[in-house]
Fold this protein.
Amino acid sequence: MPRNPFKPTAGASPPLLVGRDDVLEEFTEALEDGPGAPGRLVIFTGPRGVGKTVMLTEVGDQALRQGWVTLAETATPGLVRRLQHAVTRALHDLDSSTAPGRSVTSVTLPVVGGGFTTTAPPTAVVEWRTELGRLLDTLERNGTGLLITVDEVHKGAREDLRDLAATVQHLIREDRNVALALAGLPSAVSDLLNDDVLTFLRRATPFELHDVPLDRVSDALRTTIAAEGRSITDDALDEATCATGGYPFMIQLVGYHVWRKADGDTIDLAAVQAGVPAARKRLGSTVHETALADLSDVDRTYLLAMSHDEGESSTGEVARRLGETPYYASTYRARLIAAGVIEPTRRGYVDFTIPYLREYLREHAARYEMASRGAGRHTRR
Ligand SMILES: Nc1ncnc2c1ncn2[C@@H]1O[C@H](COP(=O)(O)OP(=O)(O)OP(=O)(O)O)[C@@H](O)[C@H]1O
Ligand SMILES: [Mg+2]
């Protein structure tokens, strides 16, 4: 049996990255364009499972392919300290490889992952900017530069991000070959951008990641399956494609479970019909639960009220169901839009952004209603 090529795991790069060519092209061009290119400072936002982490990995790979050094980090406490260590280590690796007779371009530095710790921390942490400057000196002599990626940005890491932003701003002003790519949930990023000490980040090019077109999903499913020596019938492919809703995480989940349910070389409709419920179940226990856990009880009651509708919900009607004035309901609405959980569809209407969240809420309504009882009017935030 050929191996299952799909990767339904947070942060895991998919076998085929669907629908992101334009974004990647813009980033690659920015690396080529030189210092000051706006695409060298980017922020990816979007709901859970849309592929933010994967995009950071991709831009990191693009940079590596151009001979750049990429330092990949997550916005947890100690971010700048970890970056300092990584810079020191990169310098050390480059220095030892720039001994006479060796060239920098022959060195491939590993992408330093989020859990990076040095076994032997530098005895003296030389000043961050000086070290960075030295690293950039070495890289620029070889026509390359440094990319820093930071995942899961949020207000909690404000101090570290401020230090990082100030440093990068300084380097950009000096026309250094540096690029910074950040990623976070829409509400987390807008919180940060509204922070007065982080105004510099408002200049970043924002990339809002959305679902991808179904025809691309269909092509990717077929190609991925074929690459492993299996095939899929047309009706099965249509059904599987529809079940993804164009949502990137669901592409991997559907692909993975449909692949498992098929016996022979051909994936047929029966395999898809058995695989899709398994994929949905997994989506619930990963994405839906996490997305709902990020929210307050009152926000969840708004979503529960929306889940009564088959499609988009009228915000006036949702307010009535909640027994709230439209004014109060509109503050929940705004928060949920900022969190990337719902989106306005037209004036006065909203819909879920994450596929099957409606169904998930209906199936688990009792649990969330119970939790929100007593959270109503008095604790309204
Ligand atoms: N463009 C894409 N095409 C196909 N699959 C994708 C794409 N983007 C992401 N995926 C898949 O979707 C899943 C989620 O991706 P990722 O972890 O990057 O999302 P995220 O936006 O970082 O989510 P979170 O907010 O929870 O961190 C992974 O299994 C990944 O392989
Ligand atoms: Mg992520």
About this structure: The radius of gyration is 23 Å. Strands lie at 41-45, 69-74, 146-151, 178-184, 205-208, 231-232, 266-267, 313-314, 342-346, 349-352. The pocket of adenosine-5'-triphosphate (ligand 1) is lined by residues 7-14, 17-20, 46, 48-54, 185, 212, 248-249, 251-252 (CB under 6 Å).
